[in-house]
Amino acid sequence: MSRMSREDQPVAEVVDLGPLASSLGFLFRMGQIEVFDMFYDTVGRLGLKPGEFSVLWAVHLNPGVRQGAVAETLRIKPAHMTKLIRSFESQGLIARHIPAEDRRGIELRLTDLGEAFVNDNAQAFFSYARQEANRLTPEEAAQLIALLQKFTRLGGTP
Length: 158
Fold this sequence. Notes:
Elements: H1 24-43, H2 50-61, E1 65-66, H3 67-74, H4 78-90, E2 94-97, E3 107-110, H5 112-131, H6 138-152
Antiparallel strand pairs: 1-3, 2-3
Helix pairs in contact: 1-5, 2-5, 3-4
């Protein structure tokens, strides 16, 4: 069986990857590239990168959450998280609050504009997310999600 390219055209030359094709890290990376390509094709009009909506969604579900907790959960480096939150703040999407009892912690809340943005775009984002597994049967998709939740220690419901 010949492989198909991203554009569903036959690949002219098949490259043997040997044991690399069974490497979990390699397969995660290739899967990430596939999913990101689908993301930009489908939801690129929002002007967001894949992880950015995830941050807004987490703050939406957890008003007052500490910036460090979101960064740790989503595995975003602190410096990058600070830059991202400042960008959201300058766009009027997020408000930061430093509590008097712990000046080291930064609490995050969506602004009214941020709430409107999340509410206006959640359906597009999650519709895209349901399409990510369109190459799998519903049972395969559920199994893959469960395995990835276990592997990443995220758990929760898909």
